[in-house]
Write a structure and sequence with these properties.
Mean pLDDT: 89
Radius of gyration: 25 Å
Shape: globular
Order of helices and strands: HHHHHHHHHHHHHHHHHHEHEHEHHEEEEH
Strand order of the largest sheet: 2-1-3-7-4
Low-confidence stretches: 473-481
Number of strands: 7
Length: about 475
């Protein structure tokens, strides 16, 4: 009897050390070079909101934004302090995800899933961004899996906890609303499909979850600034910017083809076994993707809105790996084959992570280097024109000129004095300010670039200088050009 207890304790200790090791790996990947990357446009929106948190309404003070505000109070405003909370939440998601999967399936699958999440490039990227996505994913995942456990085990308290985390996720962004059609679709397919109905499929439980969830979502939607302010909503979401195929391609790129293929295998295998959890995860993975692809036909959309499906996809892939290991455990050759497939799932994302840190500047614009260059080479009275005025003001510690304003008023005012004008052209310049973009390339002197290149996308960063003493009189957009 004593030997059995010792074996159990040894096994538990080994599991504890293993999940601690995986969590440490996750922390290293998320905190490495955390403060090196410069802010980009959306990040600085978070910075400004956190700095002015007390001016926002209570409903707009999301948990992650409050965390950034407290980080600023403690450490001051900077890249590292702005990203501290998203990084901590990204690390915390790994052991929490392990615990949920262990309870849902088994310890082996939980370990595989937590490793895949710990090294996932998409999750590392958003963990190193001063944005809300890691908080959104954590709350969304907790709500999603607690809902499943509540329905599966007929435990209303799990559904209440799921509601709490759904509210937290919705306070981060309304993209959390994808949880409702995903869960409703699952319940419908279980009820009327070839699946055994879980013990918690009761109208009491459904009413307990869906009525408050829908009500809270309606309230948050109505109070959303983009809904209350029609002009703001029109400027933010009133145009289609991407096609469904662009959304799909972006999601596959950020997930990685090996993970996508493994997740598809896990989904198909689970559905063939008429497994309810497999059905639930498949729907949870598909609904956000299909929803964003559909919305992209007529409204602003981005592949990052599909990020909430990451844990469902990772778990489907982990199920496939576990099944492969179980099926191929009889012979040495079969174990080697299973190990080779598993290595692909580990090596491919780590290769992407190496490029991310070493060569791709954290997969974002290098604004800091561009403004550092201008700061080092500028003269008294020089003007700076850029698409991201708040970001330029922050890094240059002076008032700059927004390119969109110049686009509306013309360059005549900007060139009225004899001072030099620096113009920074980034990825968005040609779309937001096409006249200024063309003028800079035709009339200003190209100085240098700090562009970032990687396989699926390029972030151009070109610096031009217009010196009226050298250039003389030129036509400008404001002069009819």
């Amino acid at each position: 009897m004593g030997r059995v207890k010792t074996a159990v304790h040894t096994n538990l200790l080994f599991q504890l050390l293993l999940i601690i090791s995986i969590t440490v790996l996750a922390a290293i990947l998320r905190f490495y070079m955390l403060g090196k990357w410069s802010f980009w446009g959306d990040e600085y929106i978070t910075v400004e909101r956190a700095k002015n948190l007390m001016d926002l309404s209570i409903l707009r003070r999301s948990p992650s934004l409050i965390g950034v505000y407290l980080s600023f109070k403690q450490f001051g405003v900077g890249e590292w302090s702005a990203r501290l909370v998203p990084a901590i939440l990204g690390v915390a998601t790994v052991p929490i995800f392990f615990w949920l999967v262990r309870k849902l399936i088994n310890t082996q699958t939980a370990f595989i899933a937590s490793v895949l999440l710990a090294i996932a490039p998409w999750h590392i990227y958003w963990s190193q961004n001063a944005r809300f996505y890691t908080a959104l994913l954590l709350f969304y995942t907790l709500s999603l899996l607690l809902f499943y456990m509540g329905i599966e085990e007929d435990k209303p308290w799990y559904l209440v906890l799921s509601l709490v985390f759904f509210a937290a996720a919705s306070s981060e962004r309304l993209v959390a609303a994808f949880l409702l059609p995903a869960t409703a679709s699952y319940l419908g397919l279980v009820k009327f499909g070839p699946f055994q109905t879980p013990s918690g499929w009761r109208w009491r439980n459904l009413t307990l979850f869906f009525m408050p969830a829908v009500l809270s979502l309606l309230i948050l939607t109505f109070l959303n600034p983009s809904v209350q302010n029609s002009s703001q909503g029109q400027s933010s979401f009133g145009f289609a910017n991407n096609s469904p195929f662009w959304i799909l391609g972006g999601v596959v790129f950020y997930l990685g083809i090996p993970l996508v293929c493994a997740a598809l295998a896990g989904a198909i295998s689970s559905l063939l076994r008429v497994n309810r959890l497999g059905l639930f995860l498949t729907i949870s993975a598909a609904v956000p993707l299909l929803g964003v692809m559909a919305v992209s036909l007529f409204l602003y959309s981005a592949n990052r809105y599909v990020f909430v499906s990451l844990t469902s996809i990772v778990l489907l892939a982990a199920i496939a790996v576990k099944d492969l290991m179980t099926l191929n455990s009889s012979t040495l050759n079969a174990r080697i084959l299973a190990g080779g497939v598993t290595l692909i799932l580990l090596i491919a994302p780590m290769a992407d992570n190496f490029l991310y840190y070493k060569y791709q500047n954290g997969n974002r614009d290098n604004w800091k280097a561009a403004f550092d260059y201008i700061d080092a080479h500028s003269e008294e009275g020089d003007q700076v024109i850029t698409t991201h005025k708040p970001l330029a003001d922050y890094y240059l510690r002076q008032e700059t000129v927004g390119m969109q304003m110049v686009e509306r008023s013309g360059l005549a005012d900007a060139l009225a004095s004899e001072n030099r004008v620096w113009i920074v052209l980034d990825l968005t310049a040609s779309g937001k300010s096409p006249a200024v973009f063309r003028w800079a390339r035709e009339n200003a002197h190209f100085v240098t670039e700090f562009s970032v290149y990687f396989s699926a996308r390029t972030y151009p960063m070109e610096i031009y200088l217009y010196d009226p003493k050298v250039s003389g009189t030129v036509n400008t957009p404001g002069n009819g050009n």
